[in-house]
Amino acid sequence: MIQRLAAVFAVVGLGICLAYAEEAKPAPTKPDAAQIARLVAQLGSDRYEEREAASESLDALGTTALDSLRVALKSPSPETRKRAGDLVQRIEKRLETAELTQPKMIRLVYNDTPVTEAVQDIARKTGFPVQIEGDQTKLANRKITLDTGEIPFWQAVDQFCEKAGFVERGSVAIAETNKPAIEQRDLAVRKMVIMQDGSMGGARSEMPLVFLDGKLPAVATYYGGALRVRVLPRTAPAAGAAKNDAPVKYWGGGTVLTVEISPEPKVGVRTILSVRVEKVLDDQGNELKTPLPYTYGHDENGDLEMQWRGGMGNSVYVDGMGAGDLSTRVPLRLDLPSGVKSLKEVRGYVGADVLTPPMPLITMENILDAAGKTVEGKHGGSMQVSEVKRDDKGQVTLKVSVDKPPPAFPQVIDRFGRGRLMRRGGIVVDERGTDPNVVGRLLSLLDEKGQAFKLTAVELKPLEAPGTFEWQVTFQPPDGAAKAAKLIYLGRRRTTIDVPFVLKDVPVP
Hints:
The protein is built from ten helices and 27 strands. By secondary structure, it is α+β, with helices and mostly antiparallel strands.
């Protein structure tokens, strides 16, 4: 399974699985259409081994096989349809994960620069909120000389911290010493998460990256695109911070590794849903029992909870989230044989709930001839154009209704008539009456060259069906614009990503 994933990421040229690719089999030579057709036909073979082999080969081909697999969704063979559907979903999910976790590339260059100025420069270059916390007077004479080259954000940050003598806030392991403390912590975490998640599906408040004076020892780290995964040390590295001298032992027995997951600011990660370890090797290369996964879920009443799978699972520790920390820290309990001092390798996946950037959700082509037409969106919902008018100056007036997926939670309307609508796993829309500046972020009219028209007027008319309405919108063409070509309905979508990680040479607390 892991090798298949590595091969797929190699085929599509993505960087988030480089650690896998080191040990994965070379990607196969790109097959021709006839070879792919034979593999697709083999999905319906009478022999189980042939069906499995075809599935594995098509999975490794990734995007190369997608078009043929989509055609196979209409095959008369139920087995072919089922396997093709599973493969399409799996490949598309990997592609979406890779797209949503593309790292921001930056280059940090400093020559005897005060560290406080360098931190301000990082914020300017990235557009991310970056802060220094604590007494800065002792930093007055500290300077840094560094040239990172053009590298992903988290790698640049780690190089900077090592040179500047900084650590990130919260970079310390979790002490698991007794059951009551864990239960009290979980209760506090629930309250914090509820406050963070109270936006009914909207974007979480932007989290800053906070530096403290201190030094972090070498830690096992994996860079998965816009996500960084690492195992934290058991003692606090920050100057002036209390040391955690208690044994890092789980109340139910075993040894705890504190896995920290850090998404880039603005990447859209709302919640870490799971951390699953699929392979653990000790320092001698022996395969060990994997820990139970950490999972995050909703209870029957909708209250957020940290679930204990089988009575002995792992609970979340969102240390500092209430104070605005960027990272999530999760304890994973391992039953290690005596004498194991380090782990050669820990492989697994991080699952996360993500809110995408604004993206086209529904597109109506040939808009000037679209009166009376309806088009469905790839991710659900539909858009209907009931009337199209264009005057001699190129100004376009449309009557448009949008049927959005039903919300998982009731729609909330405030006293100003503003509403927010969300569907779990679906589309997130923020509507504010008839303000053209806001509606213009939802509806975009483009000409044949891709130039955008300016939205100048909006009227809103509720329709009979609950939750539906009709916009009457007027667009003014920019100077030199061609005739209107298509209308796009934009929105942010909630989805999940599954990012693989490999941690090497992990010290055992």
